[in-house]
Amino acid sequence: MGVDVTEEFGPWLARLLASRDMTQKQLAELTGVTGAAVNGWVNGRSVPRYQKIAAIATALGVEIEDAVSRRIPASAPNELEWIFRLAPDDGGREGGNAANFAFSASLDVLAREATQNSLDERLPGEAPVVARYVLHELTGRDLQDFMEALGWASIEKHISSAADAQQKVGRVLRDGLQELERTQRLILLRIDDHNATGLTGPEYADGRFARVVRRTLDSGKAGAQGGSYGLGKAALWAASRFGLVLVNSTLSEAESGRRERRMAGRLELPWHSLDGRDYAGPGWFGVPDHERQNTARSWWGTKEMAQRLHLERADSSPGTSFLVVGAYDGSGESEDIEEMYDRLTQSLSRNFWASMVGGTQEGAKLQVAVSAFRNGIPVRPEKFIDPHAHEPARSRAVQAFLDGETVTELTDRTQVLETSVPLELRRRKSDPPTDDPGTHEAVLLLTPAGDEDDHPDQIAFMRATRMVVKSKRVGDLPLGHRPFQAVLLAGAATMRGTPDAEAAEQMLRTAEPPDHNDWVGTEDLTATYERGARQRIVDFKKAAEQKVRELLRGVEDQPDQDEGPAVLRELLRLDPPKEGRSQGFPTVKAISGEVDGNGAWNVEVTVQLPRQDEPWVLTPVPRFVVRSSGPVSVEWSEVVPVDGCAMTPNGNLVFRDGATRGKFRGITAVTSHPVSANMAQVMVEMRRAKEEQG
Fold first, then answer.
1. The pLDDT of residue 571
2. 444 and 487 in contact (C-beta within 8 Å)?
3. Is residue 317 pLDDT above 70, yes or no?
4. Cα–Cα nearest to 212, from 266, 262, 279, 153
5. Predicted confidence band at 257 (pLDDT cuts at 50, 70, 90)?
6. Beta strand 129-139 pairing with 272-274
7. Strand, coil or helix: what is 72?
8. Cβ distance 219 to 228 under 8 Å?
9. How far apart are CA 133 and CA 659, in angstroms?
């Protein structure tokens, strides 16, 4: 195998001499040649033989391979510095990176943004991206060693100076410093991806490295990609109490003759003043660039340094490790690493279960593991997330689609019904006027939910990477319907390499807001597509829900051998009560629900409200309808407002001023049931509350 030479020997030697403050005369003395010979090497008039190259490598303190391949040598710890950007002369000040405010500083957001970025960087081929989330709590000597390797003494004073309690970012920084001082502990969160591209590209010019480490709001992403290094990467820095993230990347394409341990650090601070100098805010950890003033370059690290910084990767496969220093859950939902472990596991399984499912036609796109340590001792061993354990029904639906085993009519509880939902495409403003974008047929999957499913009757929207863009409960369902799960696969997720699938993928991506959690009318959609694109998106989502309702009606009309005798089936076929004719008083618009494991009816009720000047205050009354008698009143064990209403001190519902519709959930009290809930229909009456009458 030949040697991968990245540049001429002369420029390489000149750069190394400058970085080591060594003169040509000094090198000549160390290698036993004349000054004229060294000058000839530097200026490209001659190239030394191998024996002299070995002597030059020794004199410069680098590996012989560095000199032979003209690659950048690995940096020693004493070469690393924190360098901060100076404030501009115009006196401008920034109170922090605006991109960090686009997301909440929660572990849920971090897991979603970081993982979709990993999916976007997956290398071509069948192998999935392997993502690892590693929590590490440091105390004592382990903490001290990490802080020394990080150069904490150099940055602590900058953080303290920027910790202005009058600013939002400053308050977070101050709280982080106080927490560190009080507990003498530090939580690190390392996010690794493998079988990904890595931070390729030059130091400053366009490329993945510059977009992630140096730039803001610059992603370079398009097409089927879901995340955005331009904005989504900000979630990494927002999840640090100090705005501090380190990286270690193994590149899929060599840069400067190297692939392993491209390392760097970035500290996001607001404007601050220190020792009489004003700083714009951000700082970078690396080796000083002798060709640029006040600039730190990334460095090629040693295994020992990567280990001290808790950034050593498990293998040599390409990808990137991000280390969030001072990691925390800004939502306040989790405090210690055990709770953070659980939170990450829940978020990853909820958002990426479909990406982890594989079949015969297409394999899994993603594998995810989570682990937690204290000073190197496991407190939560590494465990890969099983999508079938967390989302059994929906994972079954996607796998059936990938295996080509869907059906057009459900006859069994384990089957998956497949149909289509049309998305009317719109033409982009840059397309020729004669182009007809046509229609994209998205894939809708429907399967019965199991008894263990805590959140049935949901529809999940997704496209290329099969990340869940949005999951929502389908409304206005018939009472007593069979619980289900539905999945809508659009664009490239349909596995069709057709022009309409590609066009749908682009249109839906443009319709996603920065956090990629819905398909809506974004500014990007309005700027890119002709008028009417937003309405097409709205109609598409509504059509998917309506298709689910139609499918459920078809399924419920079919006999099921598991449902028991026909007489009992008829008794258990529960329909919502018909809406009253009078429009002068609130009426029940729809009821959906089921009998829970305690034998109580758990229902969700939508109320239609006539307009009036004063808010409606109502008492919902549940009633059982049985064959042996008319409606019999029962009691609630719990009533919970859902939308457009609230509870009064007397336990009634007060509906918002001017509201025409409201929604609440109720659970009947089993002790008040005249018969078993399975043997009765349930209806709800809305009565004027006594507190309003009085």
1. 35
2. yes
3. yes
4. 266
5. confident
6. unpaired
7. coil
8. yes
9. 45
Distance CA 587, CA 661 (A): 10
> Do residues 504 and 497 lie in contact, with contact meaning Cβ atoms separated by under 8 Å?
no
One-letter amino acid for residue 593 of the chain: G
Contact 670, 598 (CB under 8 A): yes
For 137, residues 6+ apart whose C-beta sits below 8 A from its C-beta are 185, 186, 187, 188, 336, 337, 372, 373, 374, 375
Residue 74: predicted pLDDT: 87
**Residue 224 to residues 132, 221, 505, 521: CA-CA distances in angstroms?**
23, 9, 6, 18
Q: Between β-strands 129-139 and 645-647, what pairing exists: parallel, antiparallel or unpaired? A: unpaired
Residue 527, token pair as written in the block:
């700027």
The position carrying tokens 């040599």 is 316
Task: Examine the pLDDT at 220 and tell me if it is beyond 60.
Answer: no
pTM for this prediction:
0.76
Helix/strand/coil percentages in the chain, nearest 5: 30, 30, 40
Alpha helices, H only, 282-327? 303-308
Selection from 192, 12, 67, 33 nearest residue 117 by Cα: 192
| pLDDT above 50 for 445 | yes
Among the listed ranges 141-145, 293-297, 500-504, 554-558, which one has the minimum average pLDDT value? Answer: 554-558
CA distance 283 to 269: 8
Q: Return the amino acid letter for 604.
A: E
Buried b (16+ CB within 10 A) or exposed e, 1-24: eeeeeeeebbebbbebbebbeeeb
**Residues 6+ away with beta carbon under 8 Å from 106:** 239, 329, 330, 331, 333
> In the structure encoding, which two tokens stand for residue 117, read together?
């970025």
Give the range among 342-346, 371-375, 617-621 with minimum mean pLDDT. 617-621
Q: Residue 673: what pLDDT?
A: 87
**Which letter does DSSP use for residue 87 in this model?**
P
Q: CA 507 to CA 539: how far, in whole Å?
A: 14
What values do phi and psi take at 112, rounded to 5? -65, -50
Exposure on the CB side of residue 270, measured as CA atoms within 13 A:
23
Instruction: Using alpha carbons only, give the angle 663, 665, 671 rounded to the nearest 5 degrees.
Output: 145
Range from 524-533, 592-601, 618-627 carrying the lowest mean pLDDT: 618-627
pLDDT band at 580 (very low <50, low <70, confident <90, very high): very low
Kindly state the tokens that stand for 284.
Answer: 């970078």
For residue 642 the two structure tokens come to 């859902």
Residue 123 has pLDDT above 60, yes or no: yes
Residue 185: exposure state from Cβ atoms within 10 A (0-12, 13-18, ≥19)? middle
Quote the CA–CA distance of 488 and 456 in Å, as a whole number.
Answer: 15
Range 656-685 average pLDDT: 86
pLDDT at position 104 is 65
Q: Which of 601, 603, 584 is nearest to 642 (CA)?
A: 603
* Per-residue pLDDT, 568: 34
Which residue blocks in 33-130 are alpha helix, DSSP H? 35-42, 50-60, 64-69, 107-120
- How deeply is 483 buried, as exposed, middle or buried, from its count of CB atoms within 10 A (0-12, 13-18, 19+)? middle
